[in-house]
Design goal:
The protein is about 25% helix and about 25% strand. The protein has about 350 residues and is α/β, with parallel strands linked by helices.
Length: about 350
């Protein structure tokens, strides 16, 4: 089969690799019908995630069809159409028992495209299939479901929920890429009074407006001054970091009000400065997190009921074999306007 293989920082290739097979009785082999690329994949290619070894098949988001299951798998069977979660869960360890699947101690967590071969391939082996896949109703399209593999639960859980967004809040989202836009979308579930999006690219600020941002702040504007004016000098109740570079984290800490929340969602590859000399007295709560995907069943029900529009994240579509072209489009959003790309089996 063909797969997108990471060959070290800056190196990727779509090439022939062995087709996966069952290794454990809890495994499933899934034919990949639709897959996407994540900003985390770009961080891997930059060398920001050194735990990813050369030769690894990238990708951790997919919708596919079960082709084979292990003897211990009971909830899915060959022929089922499923969402492959970005997080695998053993279902038995201390963390899984409290739905903190991202911290799984039993061999799960974020492993696809990280510690084991991932989804940017024609087939993928999915460990713990009973607890790491979600059966898709016929009414939900593969494209729509694909956005629930990572970006929607990540933004909702690590950004909106960890940030304790509440009715009437002022929410600042720093970074209007797919994760930031998903944070804007899911923050609206809690009726904030205003959502402010900050980004350097005008195309992404335009997208933020379309996704529900009330105010946008771009290059050349003083974000602290604008947020101060909009909040009577207090600052934001919640600042969500959705980029993963030191400057954006430090900006969030600058924009949040006393007693507010900074929710870091971005994947960081370099140290950021925590200005405790300013923050220690201000009762600021800072949270970090890897998505658990505990919210995926809820989001999937909302999607099936027509309460979420996830296909609007998709700006580019490719055949599965056009992986290199898809990476080119996704990694140059300022030129292409790419938000999420979908690669589908013909």
């Amino acid at each position: 089969m063909k797969a997108l293989v990471y060959d070290g920082p800056g190196q990727r290739v779509w090439r022939d690799v062995p087709q996966p097979s069952l290794r454990e009785p809890t495994d499933a082999v899934v034919r990949v019908d639709a897959v996407t690329i994540c900003g985390t994949d770009l961080h891997i290619l930059k060398g920001d995630v050194p735990t990813v070894q050369s030769g690894r098949i990238l990708g951790h988001e997919a919708v596919g069809t079960i082709v084979e299951v292990g003897a211990a798998v009971t909830t899915v069977r060959p022929g089922d159409r499923v969402l492959v979660s970005c997080i695998s869960a053993c279902g038995r360890c201390r963390y899984c028992r409290v739905a903190a699947y991202g911290q799984c101690l039993g061999g799960g967590g974020w492993i696809l495209g990280h510690l084991i071969d991932g989804t940017q391939a024609e087939y993928v082996r999915v460990p713990f299939a009973d607890t790491s896949t979600h059966h898709l109703p016929d009414a939900v399209s593969s494209e729509a479901a694909l956005m629930l593999a990572d970006i929607l639960p990540t933004s909702y859980e690590v950004g909106v929920r960890n940030g304790n967004v509440a009715p009437g809040d002022t929410v600042v989202v720093v970074g209007a890429g797919p994760i930031g836009l998903a944070a804007i979308s899911t923050a609206q579930l809690y009726s904030p009074s205003q959502i402010i999006a900050i980004d350097l690219a005008q195309s992404r600020l335009d997208a933020a407006k379309q996704f529900g941002a009330d105010v946008t702040i771009g290059a050349g504007q003083d974000a602290a001054e604008v947020v101060g004016e909009l909040t009577g000098g207090l600052g934001a109740d919640v600042a969500i970091e959705a980029v993963g570079v030191p400057e954006t984290f430090e900006l969030c800490a600058k924009l949040v009000r006393a007693g507010g929340h900074v929710a870091n969602v971005g994947v960081h590859g370099k140290p950021a400065t925590l200005h405790l000399e300013d923050l220690w007295i201000r009762n600021v709560t800072i949270t970090t997190g890897l998505v658990d995907t505990s919210s995926t069943p809820t989001l999937l029900r909302m999607l099936a009921a027509g309460r979420l529009d996830t296909t609007r994240f998709i700006t580019h579509r490719f055949a599965l074999a056009e992986m290199e072209a898809a990476y080119q489009a996704f990694s140059h959003p300022n030129d292409t306007g790419a938000l999420k790309v979908v690669l589908a089996r013909p």
